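Why predict the complex rather than its parts? Because the way molecules touch one another can change local conformation, and only a joint prediction can capture that. The input here totals 450 residues.
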Amino acid sequence: MVDRTASEASTLGERVFEQMLDMIYRGDLAPGSVVNEAALAVRFQVSRGPIREAVRRLQGIQLVTREPFAKARVVKLSRQALADLYEMREALEGYACRLVTERMSDQDLAELIAALETARQDYLRDGQPESLSDFDFHSRIIRASGNARLISTLYGDLYHLLRMMRRIKGHVPQRKHDAYSEHWQIIRAIKARDADLAESLMRAHIRRAAAHTMDEGQLTDVASR
Amino acid sequence: MVDRTASEASTLGERVFEQMLDMIYRGDLAPGSVVNEAALAVRFQVSRGPIREAVRRLQGIQLVTREPFAKARVVKLSRQALADLYEMREALEGYACRLVTERMSDQDLAELIAALETARQDYLRDGQPESLSDFDFHSRIIRASGNARLISTLYGDLYHLLRMMRRIKGHVPQRKHDAYSEHWQIIRAIKARDADLAESLMRAHIRRAAAHTMDEGQLTDVASR
DNA sequence: GACGCTCAAAGTGTCAACACTTTTGAGTTT
DNA sequence: AAACTCAAAAGTGTTGACACTTTGAGCGTC
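Output of the joint prediction:
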């Protein structure tokens, strides 16, 4: 059921896209599963046109694969493909870190440090790992890079895929405490304006996250879900 | 006029896409120009559906921008956007170079060196800068990286944009001789299995290409074409 | 001349029907 | 039981018409 109330001017195609994206994230459209235009049109009570629009857009962000005349499918990432994704993160987030080291003003850097310190205080008070938000740190670094293309590549494709995989993996024990200290090391390198070190530390950080995730061995069990 | 003869099974939408891509590369659909569905449908003698399919696909590779209910437009890159593109190349091609340094077999590396040497001999014999194909070298490095995501990011988006800009720029005096010697330095670093150096040299190579291109000052004249 | 309003024309989004391709499953043969 | 055939069903691609939104020409007012 597509919400047709126009809280803001939008098309059915875009609404269908949002809802299909949710379905993918939630696993209702699982990796490898068929994307059936006609069935979705019935489900959402729209014609096939907006479904096609949404599917094309999902294809554009790599969440769906499609061949002429064949049923579209939600992408199913192999272990190798996931490894490739993490390498892309190393390349891009590492480089973003370099750009930040070279470009971030002292004032903005002070604000980032203050925000990280606040998160640490929250953690000490609450003992909640969520206070050490992994994604917020990365988000801040990437957005601070100032490279719009880099930002849109990460947020436009790669993070959608990782988010989908996250759901598939289910709960992975977090490494928040380790991640937090790695963040601090990265920040110190940035503060010292050592771009090589900052980049290298960010890459290592992501490499460890990749190893942590892929060593959980759950990817080989994806097919059983 | 869309060629409807089925040399291979394909859809009208895909054929329209190919032809629109050509039009963009040739400047017939110039950056900033309106993409009018109805007019293109008449021109290609198909219904608006395949046009929409093609436009969605062009949007997926960032060559077209679109808002609901508004005319799509061929993207028009600002100077900053082009700079961002080159930075992306630095990040990704630099990283590809690192991967190659770490992974390429001695045999494959020897073949690459031989191919480069052949190009040099051709150049000495012909005096034709085309013998020192800039793109072939990069292509070989990127494909040899073994990271499918990286390859598709470069070939799926970034190079389309650069190709479009190349046409817009018109003829830029080539720096083939300099580029060639830089290629050799990169190869030597790869051969020495010095990933840091290889990456750094590739980045510098691309940075110089960027500076060379953007210093031609032609980008500020784009609007006059 | 500049600005604002009106409204028809132009253009995009959606729909349902038809055209075309692929998949499915029943029936037959080995 | 396995393999093959083939028609029907299912699903995708395309079309033209209608619904909806945006644009711009024409007109009136200041």
